[in-house]
Every structure is written in C-alpha cells, then in structure tokens.
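step: validate -> pass
step: tokenize input -> pass
step: predict -> running
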Amino acid sequence: MLNRRSFFNGIAALGMVFLLSGCNRTRPALKILLLANSIPSQSISKFRKSLTQKTALSFKAEAQLQQLYDFLEDWREQGKEAQEEPSWIDPLIGFLPFVRQRPPKQTNLITLGHSWLSQAIQNQVIQPLNPDNFSQWKNLPSSWQDLVRRNSKGQLDPSGEVWGAPYRWGTTAIAYNRDKFKALDWELTDWSDLWRPELRDRVSIIDRPREVIGLTLKKLGYSYNEQDLSKIANLKSELRSLHQQIKFYSSTHYLQPLILEDVWVAVGWSADILSLQEQYPNIDAIIPQSGTALWTDLWVEPSRKNAPSSEAKINTQPSLENKWIDFCWREETALQIALFTPASSPIILGMNRANLLETLQNDPLRLPNAEIIAKSDFIEPLSKEIEKQYRDLWKTIMPNVDSEL
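step: predict -> pass
step: emit ->
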C-alpha cells in the first residue's frame, strides 16, 4: 500500500497535472512520462507560459517507478504487449481511471529512479545527456553530478558520460508514533536507537537488504556501500540483534503497522512518510544523525534507436528537452517541488537556507541538516563479488526469504 513507488497506487497521482497544448504534428512537440505527484501542476503551467513558440506539450503520469522502467524495456522490444498505459490527467476533470491499452508511444523524457540507472545503461534503453546544453547544470550539487556520471557498463565513473538529470530526492527516514514515545525518557535521534530494548518487536522496516545492512553499517560507522563486509567482525551479530527488534519486513506495507499501532517505529522512504503525515499528525519522523541513504529520481532520455521512424520525426526538437530539464533546476521550480510534492529538489541544497521559507527550514524530511546530508550515501551498484557478500550475509539472517537486494 505504501511505498515511494506506489503510494496508495493511483491515488498519489491526484496531485499531478496533464497538460496538452495543441495537437498539430507540425509544431515542435515535447512528450514527458513522469512519476505521479513528482512535479507540481504550477510548475508545468509556468513552463508552458515560458515557451515563446507554440508547442505541443503532453505530460503523462504513472504511479510506479517500476512501471516507468518497464516502459523503457517495452520500447526496446516494440512488439511486446504492454501491461497498461498510464492515465491521462486533466487539470479540470482530475484523475481518470487506469485503462489497459497498448504501451504509450516513446516519449522525449521519462522519470527513472537512480537505482535503475545501471540496468538501464547496460540494457541500452537510455542515451546520455550533454551537460553543456544545460545552463543550470552548475547549480546541481557535485554528489548528484557524480552519481549520474557512468561508463557504458553503468558503473560510477568520474570521466563517464552523464546519463540522467536528477530533479528530486529524499532519504531513508525513521517514522514513529509520537504518543507511544511520551512515556519514554529518551528521544529517537539515530539508527542505534532501533536496538534499544524498549523497541523489541516494535519496528517495521522496508524489505531491502541493502537498506537494512546499510543502516547497520551506519550504526557501526561505515558506509552503505562498504566494499568488504568480511572485515567487519561484529556486523553479523548486530544484524541478528536488529532482527529481534523487527516485527514486520515489507516494502509495500511497512507503514500500515505504524498506523494501526502494531509497531511504534517504521523505517522507510521519506516521500511515503511525508504523504502519511498529512493524514496522521501523530506520526513524527527523524533523519538519523549518523547519516542515511539518499535516493533521487532522474529525467532520462529513451534511446532513440529504439523509436519507430515516425516517432523519430516528431522528436526533432532536442532543445525542448533541455529547456524542461533546465526549468526543473531553476530555484523557483525547486522551491515548488519542495513545497508541493513529498520530496525536495537537489537545487535547494545550494541555496541560502536563511532565505528559504520557514516551512522548509523546519522540515527535516524535505531539508535535513547539512551535516547529516554530508554523512549520507546514495546506495551505489556493487561488483558481482561484493554483491554476493551482501546476499550471503542476508541469507544468514533471513534464510527462507528471497528479497530484492
């Protein structure tokens, strides 16, 4: 029910807008397939007004990042039958029901979660971007620039090409029931608090080994991307101790036990937690002081060699894609993303915090402390050898469960 890929499935898409301006195929066209509720309608309208030339614009929303990646694969294999087409959203009517049709035609840009980036590069379903085409590239924090520089195998490479344009981000956070903690003489501040005896069997957590092992590594002073787990002698015992604290593992329902008060604490993605807080004001959240995992969503450009020839003729205005990405990196748009969606924009991090609205300054989920961000990590791809270490370690904790790493 609740994860950053599908918050209440299609309901999260209610906050998105579909905008179509003109249907004449002779006009320049920009077609974007995006994650629902990741761009405010105000921003789309502002972009439309900023264009000096009449342009056919279309924005389609899809509720799940997995489905967006699947569309990239579909476009590579044009004969494959689609599972479903994302719904159109009309600014006056609202969200229209999902309908099962053929896959959408290839778009100019599509949202991709950074955890899919290596796979997308390896499978040749996207093509690199040229950062020289973006006037706002320089305002993107260096860690976000480094994250999207990859070689042809999808591995991080400081001299590699740029494969995506990060436009929003968030963290792995700890949500908790404020009322349950009133009787305790301590407050949640860091990952180590999850091991406290008061929280025995009172924790739910996302079912992702890299996240669970990663937060344990953080507790011990290491990175989420530690390259040799065999050197950390007490890692296995710490994981086993944490396992005793956890009542539920789920990447789709980890917040439900918190709502029902079956647990006091839930570890998951900040976008889910922010959406939940709008309905349940007794749910608070913290970003652990020792640092956490970062996630980011990107604009990527589907590989044009997979597009039908008729579609290739339509997509003859690459400058429109560049304008949209640059527009998303403007400070005004960054603020709108942070204020009107359950995430933030990386551009916010380079702005003077004193000039930001008090709403953002006092929201640790949208704008964590700068020191915490500096201690945090994007979960990066691992070599096959190191990936096996993570899988083998997880099997010692959950021998009968085959979880996505």
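step: describe -> The radius of gyration is 21 Å.
step: cleanup -> pass
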